From TrEMBL:
Membrane spanning residue stretches: none
Source species: Bifidobacterium catulorum
Domain of life the protein comes from: Bacteria
Keywords: DNA-binding
Protein name: DNA-binding protein
Molecular function GO labels: DNA binding
InterPro entries: RecT_fam, ssDNA_annealing_RecT
Pfam family, one: RecT
GO biological processes: DNA metabolic process
Length: 351
């Protein structure tokens, strides 16, 4: 996603009362916000979630109010509930990640492994990942087709040590609606390699790993395994796109205008604590990148009151200079051209 703008009325958004600023933005931009999040939340509930999270996580007070509100909007748009409010672990709004030009941190949107499961359920796929520990006596096997499966002992070892340092592997098996089965696993060594490569580190703590990987290793391992499965499963476009916006600062600056002044744009600071990239062999795939841009594009049209794909494509066709029947028919270059057009204030209505 793009970087979120961080100033209001030509001045930096460093306010003494973030709850008041969020309340003002919700009130002034609610019609646009509602088009993005749908009927998932009412304005008073969205505001209550934000203020409750700030009270429970005081460090969020140091984050830009725009980034905090944007994270909650992203959460609501995906139909997830923030754990900062209900403690269920579907999603988290965390005070680490990007910093703007003034050095003020932005809040970061992080989907929990239970949130990943919820996104699967929304696509009609039900799964329960398993964390296997050294003393469980569970064995990992592979069938003649190369599909992994686990072999459980006759008796459960009730005295098995289930502390994170004794995790052996995480396993995921799903029976798909078409009768086939998807299964995958990651060993502890795989998880540690992934963590060491992508987890945020603090230069103030000797480059030590920080964030969820430092405090919730098992849960992050389960989440990583589930998130990797999305590219192989028949999930919705929204679910696949969710994996690309995970652990980012969402950009809803166009929705929150005129509360935000575009004079300042924050940049990623690679030397500070930051969220990990999306999982994959080396980098985010081209498909994931395009899905993320399409997600951004559709949200921008919704914010402008354009909810029908046909109506949006009529505008898109004029911008790119050819007939575009649907979002899926656009090239990445055309998506970029439309986003750039919207960024520079060209009208996107039906006139």
């Amino acid at each position: 996603m793009g970087q979120i703008t961080q100033a209001t009325q030509g001045r930096q958004m460093v306010q003494a009362d973030p709850a008041r600023d969020i309340r003002d933005m919700v009130r002034n931009a609610w019609p646009q916000i509602e088009k993005v999040i749908g009927g998932n939340l009412k304005p008073d509930m969205l505001l209550q979630y934000c203020i409750s999270a700030i009270n429970r996580e005081p460090a969020l007070k140091q984050c830009t109010p725009v980034s905090v509100l944007s994270c909650f909007m992203q959460c609501a748009a995906l139909g997830l509930k923030p754990s900062n409010v209900d403690g269920l672990g579907q999603a988290y709004i965390l005070p680490y990640g990007n910093k703007n030009h003034g050095g003020q941190p932005d809040a970061t949107f992080v989907i929990g492994y239970k949130g990943m499961l919820k996104l699967l359920e929304n696509s009609g796929i039900y799964a329960q990942p398993v964390a296997v520990y050294e003393q469980d006596g569970v064995k990992l096997r592979m069938d003649e087709k190369g599909t992994p499966f686990i072999e459980c002992p006759d008796e459960i070892n009730l005295d098995a040590d289930h502390s994170p340092e004794h995790l052996k592997f995480v396993f995921l098996s799903i029976d798909l609606p078409n009768g086939s089965r998807y299964a995958s696993y990651m060993s502890r060594k795989d998880l540690e390699a992934y963590r060491d490569r992508y987890a945020p580190r603090s230069k103030y703590k000797g480059n030590k790993i920080t964030g969820p990987w430092a405090t919730n290793f098992v849960e992050m391992g389960l989440k990583t395994l589930i998130r990797r499965s999305f590219k192989y499963l028949p999930v919705s476009v929204e679910a696949k796109t969710a994996t690309t916006v995970d652990e980012t600062t969402p950009d809803y600056s166009s929705v929150l205008a005129p509360q935000i002044d575009d004079a300042m744009t924050p940049v990623m600071d690679a030397t500070i604590d930051g969220p990990e990239p999306d999982p994959g062999d080396d980098s985010t795939s081209a498909e994931d990148r395009v899905n993320a841009k399409l997600f951004d594009l559709t949200n921008r049209f919704k914010a402008l009151g354009v909810t029908e794909e046909r109506e949006a494509c009529a505008t898109i066709s004029r911008i790119v200079g050819r007939q575009v029947p649907g979002y899926a028919d656009m090239s990445e270059a055309e998506i970029d051209k439309v986003l750039d057009d919207m960024d520079h204030g060209t009208k996107t209505g039906g006139e």
